[in-house]
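Translate structure to sequence.
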């Protein structure tokens, strides 16, 4: 199994679910994480990543960390200072249309979105609401482009798009697609030589349907035009994703793998979860399993079955612990005082 990993957490793209997979693997295999200097889960995002943002990093004795997965804006030369040269790099993408709909609700309090009553209103005259100079403007335009380290306000020329795609291809071994999450997990499992249980996950940080809105075709086209760089990244890597499946696995075997993954997930849901699924934040009984509520989104969580034996309970709990709580547990574990 590969243990040196860089995951670029692209916002609002099922990336919290992927983080849970990395947290669990690192937790059970006693791997080290590149944590932010002051704890928390942001490596000085939205600034470009620097090695000095990592707790325990020193240029004089460069310690290598196994897993780098907390929020960052990608800058590879700096990333290379904190992980081994053989680390596997991967990230996840999402259709920019759904990504923007999600961002508008989740990041409602940001300067670009706070004054617009709806996404339609924002898109009717985006430059009335959007100012590239605002420190939180990146949430409102080409968020994936921004997270990969590029300028989200750059003009869209064929040449720039090609350079950007080539740079991403040169840096990353795999780009997952959140709309095909199960297929993505199969590819990830193959690439990392992990077993099936290591890539099983329950969706985390997902919104209640009551806060999701259907989008008209006109709005969708406006979103694509406004996030044109993201659209170029997404369509390109969605295509190469399926090319890779055809080349490395084949559609038939992929179907079998996905079936096995879903069956195992359902089995774990029966074992672990009350009602086998997610519940509204107000219905989460154990407050330590309640995810952060943000913006106008209602973020769902889980209740564990009662009466589980200790080992099963601990496995189930790891599967449903929200990102912030899990991160903080791992931080305490990694930096526990060596001397009482």
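Result:
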């Amino acid at each position: 199994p590969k243990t040196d990993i860089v995951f670029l957490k692209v916002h609002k793209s099922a990336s919290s679910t992927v983080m849970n997979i990395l947290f669990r693997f690192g937790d059970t295999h006693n791997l080290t994480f590149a944590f932010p200097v002051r704890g928390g889960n942001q490596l000085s995002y939205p600034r470009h990543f620097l090695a000095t943002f990592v707790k325990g990093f020193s240029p004089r004795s460069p310690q290598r960390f196994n897993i780098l997965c907390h929020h960052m804006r990608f800058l590879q030369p700096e990333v290379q200072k904190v992980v081994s040269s053989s680390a596997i790099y991967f990230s996840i993408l999402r259709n920019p249309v759904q990504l923007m709909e999600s961002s508008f609700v989740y990041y409602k309090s940001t300067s670009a979105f706070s004054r617009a009553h709806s996404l339609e209103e924002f898109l009717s005259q985006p430059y009335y609401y959007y100012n590239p100079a605002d420190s939180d403007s990146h949430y409102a335009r080409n968020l994936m482009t921004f997270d990969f380290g590029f300028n989200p306000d750059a003009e869209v020329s064929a040449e720039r798009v090609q350079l950007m795609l080539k740079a991403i291809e040169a840096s990353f071994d795999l780009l997952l697609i959140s709309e095909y999450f199960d297929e993505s997990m199969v590819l990830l499992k193959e690439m990392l030589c992990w077993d099936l249980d290591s890539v099983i996950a329950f969706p985390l940080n997902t919104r209640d349907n009551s806060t999701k809105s259907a989008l008209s075709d006109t709005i969708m086209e406006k979103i694509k035009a406004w996030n044109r760089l993201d659209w170029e990244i997404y369509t390109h890597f969605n295509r190469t994703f399926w090319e890779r499946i055809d080349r490395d696995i084949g559609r038939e075997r992929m179907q079998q793998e996905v079936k096995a993954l879903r069956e195992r997930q359902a089995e774990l849901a029966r074992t672990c979860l009350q009602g086998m699924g997610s519940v509204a934040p107000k219905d989460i009984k154990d407050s330590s399993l309640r995810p952060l509520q943000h913006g106008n989104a209602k973020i769902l969580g889980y209740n564990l079955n009662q009466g589980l034996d200790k080992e099963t309970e601990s496995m189930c709990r790891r599967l449903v612990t929200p990102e912030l709580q899990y991160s903080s547990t791992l931080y305490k574990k990694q930096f526990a005082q060596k001397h009482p």
